[in-house]
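Bug #77: duplicate submission created two jobs. Keeping one. Sequence:
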Amino acid sequence: MLKIDFKKIVLHLPKIICTLLLITFILLNPKSASDGIKNGITLLLSTVIPSLFPFLVIASYIASAESFRILSKFFRKVTFLLFKISPDGFIPILMGLLGGYPVGAKITSDLYKSGRLTQNEAERLMYFTVNSGPAFTITAVGISMLGNYYSGLILYFSNILTALTLGVLCRFLSDNTHPEPPKITNKDKTYAFINSVSSGSNAIINISAWVLTFACISGIIESFNLGTNTELFLNAILEVTNGCKICSGKTSLPVISAILGFGGLSVICQVSPYFTSCKVKFRNFMVSRILNASLCAFYASELLKIFPKSEETAIIYSGETTAFGITYTMGATVILIIMCIFFILQVDNRKKVC
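Kept job's structure:
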């Protein structure tokens, strides 16, 4: 006789209800869902894939390249003094501040899998390397959405100060263990770039899937007249790009800074494979996102006291806003070129990779 476990049913009841409601909304209003998907595809093809994919591939290669391991040693004292993390932790910290949301977490995960970071170090890095990059923060949000370059700078520096603050605080969670440097074989060097392309492809597929999923949900939300405040809150929680776009001109700069600090559920879902592989508890990661959002709002409000005119918006663009990737800024482009040079120097030309 089949036994029904009512405890399990009750436990999973919220998930079942949410899934059935989502299916119902899609069936009742398929046009809103399809329009959201179309907007998501446009965002992927015009911005996300062209800007992120090459950077994810090269970032994956950096995690396994001996050249950048040598470079990290130059900053070992700073990395250990501030964050109590081994020299290899410098790479995800730097890329987390320059590359945007998924890059710092991905490099951290790759380094942990290769044995170059302990579980404790990887977990602490996950708490403060998931940040908004300068291209999206300054160019897309500051210039395109707010019409004020200096507002973008305030938002980005708030992001940097928050990451550094959390990094310093997380040093007190250290278990004082450090990894033994793994041996890098010739086989690892030969297939490093091939593995990086595969890793970057898997990462971009994961990111694209979540972008489309939340674009569909956003399209459905827009079809309901839920009220301005409710729509602002839901979009800010769900997806960072739409959240910033909708809140621009309607909320204060510290609120937008908090949205960037939290990153939205879409970013959290994109990063979930990486913090899961590092054995980071979801609850702890969510606490770090809330702290990140709170500190971003605090630093933005404090910086506005020093630069009050930064909140003045010259123009609020009413047209479609595009989230610019890291490759569209001069500083990030220089970093990308440097990474390419290290990649070229690292490849063993005496062996055929393909």
